[in-house]
User: Which sequence fits this backbone?
């Protein structure tokens, strides 16, 4: 029998073939435990189904209708909403352009600021932890309406920023009322909230073994060389994580664009980001069917983008345990 | 080797089984959630006024002052009809139509709600208002003391969807203080648009471009509307835009030339006022000498600035203006007490005591008798000036236009966007006009 032979010449424990231990009555016990697990899950399952899953599927259904929120039901219109979005409605492509512009500028800027400040604050100097807390504060308050209102007032023609520029003799423009500049104020507001990725970068930096830096110093590596060849690869999982998260967040931007743009997407649609267009179509003009279609296209695009980032991760993300994905 | 994750026996449903269950169960649930029943259309017949206890909900927008006055009138009604009590809800204008639409969608809107001509088309087109036509015919709702055109301005698709509570008309508000300070002529009724712009050009030069002569109203739908009516044209023809790209190009070019001549301020200054907020109008912030508003907003503007203000009609022939319903009261189509609802609306519009309480807060009283009584007892100089202006211009009004159709708020926003494109120099007037008409057609047909 296999067991007798195995006991005769026992291999070390860690080399034993992996067979799940069998216990008597395991079937009944395991069924009870599994059932108990599911029972404990039911509150969450009900919430998930009722508040997330069912509404999501309902909105998928709505995207094929022309419901206007007030009539009792919308009529089925097939793919008309999707066709309209891609071929007939110019505000759709405009909002895509605005959102992509925002994401392409704000995300790298935010991550660069986060990494830069993290490098400065990673050592436990005096005041470092206070500085970290202060830098983190904006990302706690950042996407609030109040802060966006303050930001709008700061960058208005007679706001604090222009007063500050006046000291240097620079005549500032009406930043939030000018379609050429207003989106950049929104970008700045987004980038200002770099505290959250910064904290994660600091944690990642602390995990890089100090011996690597010492060995590199011995070999005569300068600061830049150490940064490029030790810090960046060592941080790559954290950069990857922050990149995915911040990309998704920047595509979803709503509150700051809504407030700074005055609720309609800013002077001449300059701040009409995708989510704002969705909101105005669905709740301003009562085209709930069309807005639902916009929402599902949005989901697919962000999903595709995330998959794209994951698939490139193979090439540049180095996990320290040697098992590169 | 099996390709699926191996499961120990008896460990509950597999992921695949769970997804299958959801895949079948959820569509079934959705089918059950499908809409039920058809909307009950408002009964065309005239319902009696109930004598049993009735509680009506009332919803309006406005500030504190309006809330107090409205509350007093509702109390007065309860004194005269003790079986009727009220549940009052009110809020600021911003977000009002969203809240109302949400309540209508949920079937729980107030029995009586306030509307303006931007909202009426949309709400009435969806059959959410109580049809008042038969109540007028049965003399339960008395419209004899109102200007006919004002009553007609509440009709949608031939049915009276709401009754005007108060009247106003487009009014160009100007700063008397600044006019005197720089020693220029005061704007008067009947000035042409060109005269206004040349007056404004001189004004801006006199102030060394610290204060501009006039606000640029090219993004304002009511200014465009008046301008079109003066040429015998109109904004809407039923549910379609009634003017051409040529018309709109002329309008945009008129104001582009005004900006180039510095009669009007630069685009970023105009943009802040385009949002419509009373405190941000240029005549209040002192950046221009005129603003294009509704006549009854002059007292509010005057409160927000130290300047003394005056009001005249928009430039051009006064026949372009009309007796606009500043706001309406409408009944909810699904109300359980239509008879009492109509009686309350009648009370607001026609009862002399109610009229005295409401005064001119919502605009000029629609009932002409109440207007004369209120007029005689006015103490606020600005209000007096507004009433005088309206009385002067009323005989010159043209006929009332049709109420703007469903989609009006989208069209307003579209006009603002296209006009701002011209203001910021992103597009020429002709291109912006074409774009406006293309997109307007889209917004009005869906």
Assistant:
């Amino acid at each position: 029998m296999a067991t007798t032979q195995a006991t005769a010449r026992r291999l070390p424990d860690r080399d034993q073939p992996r067979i799940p231990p069998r216990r008597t009555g395991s079937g009944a016990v395991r069924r009870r435990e599994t059932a108990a697990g599911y029972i404990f899950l039911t509150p969450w399952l009900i919430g998930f189904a009722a508040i997330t899953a069912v509404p999501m599927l309902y909105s998928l259904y709505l995207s094929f209708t022309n419901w206007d929120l007030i009539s009792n039901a919308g009529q089925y219109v097939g793919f008309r909403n999707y066709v309209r979005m891609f071929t007939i409605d110019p505000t759709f492509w405009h909002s895509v352009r605005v959102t992509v512009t925002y994401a392409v500028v704000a995300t790298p800027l935010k991550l660069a600021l986060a990494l830069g400040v993290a490098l400065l604050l990673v050592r436990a100097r005096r005041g470092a932890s206070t500085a970290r807390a202060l830098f983190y504060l904006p990302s706690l308050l950042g996407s609030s309406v109040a802060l966006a209102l303050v930001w709008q007032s700061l960058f208005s023609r007679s706001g604090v920023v222009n007063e500050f520029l006046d000291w240097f003799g620079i005549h500032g423009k009406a930043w939030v009322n000018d379609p050429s500049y207003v989106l950049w104020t929104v970008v700045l507001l987004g980038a200002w909230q770099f505290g959250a990725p910064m904290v994660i970068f600091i944690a990642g930096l602390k995990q890089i073994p100090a011996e690597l830096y010492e060995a590199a110093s011995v070999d005569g590596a300068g600061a830049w060389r150490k940064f490029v060849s030790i810090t960046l690869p060592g941080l790559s999982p954290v950069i990857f994580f922050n990149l995915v998260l911040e990309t998704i967040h920047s595509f979803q931007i709503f509150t700051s664009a809504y407030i700074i743009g005055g609720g309609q997407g800013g002077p001449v649609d300059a701040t009409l980001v995708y989510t704002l267009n969705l909101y105005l179509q669905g709740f301003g003009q009562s085209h709930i069917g069309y807005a639902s279609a916009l929402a599902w296209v949005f989901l697919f695009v962000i999903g595709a983008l995330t998959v794209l980032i994951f698939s490139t991760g193979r090439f540049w993300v180095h996990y320290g345990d040697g098992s590169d994905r | 080797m099996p390709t699926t994750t191996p499961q120990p026996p008896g460990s509950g449903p597999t992921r695949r089984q769970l997804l299958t269950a959801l895949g079948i169960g959820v569509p079934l649930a959705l089918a059950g959630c499908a809409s039920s029943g058809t909307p009950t259309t408002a009964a065309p017949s005239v319902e009696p006024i109930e004598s049993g206890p009735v509680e009506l909900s009332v919803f309006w927008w406005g500030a504190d002052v309006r809330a107090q006055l409205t509350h007093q009138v509702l109390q007065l009604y309860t004194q005269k009809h003790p079986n009727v009590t009220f549940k009052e809800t009110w809020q600021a204008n911003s977000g009002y139509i969203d809240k109302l639409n949400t309540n209508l969608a949920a079937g729980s809107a107030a029995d009586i709600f306030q509307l303006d001509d931007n909202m009426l088309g949309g709400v009435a087109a969806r059959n959410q208002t109580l049809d008042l036509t038969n109540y007028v015919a049965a003399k339960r709702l008395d419209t004899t003391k109102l200007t006919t055109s004002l009553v007609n301005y509440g009709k949608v698709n031939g049915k009276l969807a709401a009754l005007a509570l108060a009247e106003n008309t487009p009014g160009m508000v100007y700063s008397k203080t600044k006019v005197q300070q720089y020693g220029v002529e005061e704007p008067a009724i009947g000035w042409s648009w060109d005269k206004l712009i040349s007056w404004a050009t001189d004004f801006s030069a006199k102030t060394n471009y610290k204060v501009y002569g006039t606000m640029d109203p090219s993004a304002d739908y009511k200014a465009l509307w008046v301008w079109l009516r003066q040429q015998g044209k109109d904004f809407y023809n039923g549910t379609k835009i009634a003017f051409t790209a040529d018309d709109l190009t002329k309008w945009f070019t008129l104001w582009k030339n005004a900006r180039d001549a510095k009669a009007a301020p630069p685009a970023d200054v105009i943009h802040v006022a385009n949002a419509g907020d009373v405190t941000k109008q240029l005549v209040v912030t002192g950046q221009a000498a005129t603003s294009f508003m509704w006549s009854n907003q002059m007292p509010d503007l005057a409160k927000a600035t130290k300047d003394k203000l005056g009001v005249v009609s928009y430039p051009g022939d006064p026949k372009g203006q009309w007796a606009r319903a500043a706001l309406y009261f409408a009944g909810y189509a699904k109300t359980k007490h239509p008879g009492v609802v109509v009686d309350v609306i009648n009370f607001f519009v026609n009862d002399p005591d109610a009229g005295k309480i409401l005064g001119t807060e919502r605009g000029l009283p629609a009932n002409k008798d109440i207007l004369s009584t209120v007029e005689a007892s006015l103490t606020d100089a600005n209000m007096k000036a507004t009433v005088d202006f309206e009385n002067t211009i009323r005989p010159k009004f043209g006929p009332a236009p049709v109420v703007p159709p469903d989609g009006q708020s989208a069209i307003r926003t579209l006009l603002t966007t296209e006009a701002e494109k011209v203001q910021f120099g992103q597009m020429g007037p002709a291109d912006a006009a074409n774009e406006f008409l293309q997109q307007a057609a889209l917004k009005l047909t869906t």
Remarks:
- The two ends of chain A are 41 Å apart (CA to CA).
- Chain A touches chain B at residues 20, 27-28, 30-31, 34-35, 38, 53-54, 57-58, 61, 66, 68-73, 88-90, 157, 173-174, 177-180, 262, 264, 267-269, 283-287, 290 (CB under 8 Å).
- The mean pLDDT of chain A is 88.
